[in-house]
Design goal:
With 218 residues, this protein is an alpha/beta fold. The protein has a domain at 54-205: Vaccinia Virus protein VP39 (Rossmann fold), CATH 3.40.50. It is 29% helix and 28% strand. The strands form 2 sheets. It has a 7-stranded mixed β-sheet with strand order 5-4-3-6-7-8-9. It binds S-adenosyl-L-homocysteine. S-adenosyl-L-homocysteine (SAH) binds next to strand 2, helix 4 and strand 4.
């Protein structure tokens, strides 16, 4: 056990106390996951001491890991109980994937950039997450083999809700997705219940683009 490990657990507790709770993150399971998952291990060494700051960070290949508050907000809005089959689009560094894996039964995560997929898989293996399945593909197509999903989390910005994701959402089910233009988006909670689809915007956000058949072109 090193002094460093202790310092980061203190940084995580402070992150929850100062950035999450005051902005309305109240789900204790989400707060527990956020204070447990070692976010600093998902970013490169030179950025580790900034990992618990109130901002996004670069993760390579022009992509970013979301600010802790946004990760917590999106996760809380999924209302996971622990028995769900979850689909995540945009593995990135795998941090959000790890949070979801703590709160659901199984997580299927798709990433289009090979270098990020490989790095994320390595980190998640190192941390011994056994309920995460990752692949390299265009996530706008979903992952039909493992559908339906009670929860779907899209962590890149889309011009619209990709039709395959709506099809693969269970009933009842919930999807979180940033929808808008390239520079600013509405974070939308999409609910499917008794065959009805409802949408509610919970925050204005700025995500990197979802690039694929049912997202943006390159
Ligand atoms: N949840 C991630 C956020 C990464 S940023 C994290 O915590 O690190 C969004 C990610 O979505 C990027 O890695 C980007 O490459 C990926 N992405 C963009 N379009 C995609 C698509 N069509 N399918 C899968 N991943 C995609």
């Amino acid at each position: 056990m090193s002094l460093e490990t202790n310092n980061y657990s203190v940084a995580r507790a402070r992150m929850a106390r100062e950035q999450l709770v005051p902005r309305g993150i109240h789900d204790q399971r989400v707060l527990d996951a956020m204070t447990t998952v070692p976010r600093h291990l998902f970013v490169e060494d030179a950025l580790q001491n900034q990992a618990y700051g109130d901002f996004p960070l670069p993760i390579g290949a022009g992509q970013t890991i979301s600010q802790p508050y946004i990760v917590a907000l999106m996760t809380q809005a999924l209302q996971l109980r622990g028995d769900e089959n979850v689909l995540e689009i945009g593995t990135g560094c795998g941090y959000q994937t790890a949070i979801l894996a703590q709160l659901a039964d199984r997580v299927y995560s798709v990433e289009r950039i090979k270098s990020l997929h490989i790095k994320a898989r390595r980190t998640l293996d190192r941390l011994k997450y056994v309920n995460i399945v990752c692949k390299i593909d265009d996530g706008t197509l979903g992952w039909p083999n493992f559908s339906p999903f009670e929860a779907i989390m899209v962590t890149a910005a889309s011009p619209d809700i990709p039709a395959p994701l709506l099809d693969q959402l269970a009933d009842p089910g919930r999807m979180l997705i940033p929808v808008g233009d390239r520079y600013s988006q509405s974070l939308v909670v999409v609910k499917k219940q008794d065959g009805e689809i409802t949408k509610e915007t919970i925050e204005q956000v700025r995500f990197v683009s979802l690039i694929g058949l049912h997202g943006w072109q390159e």
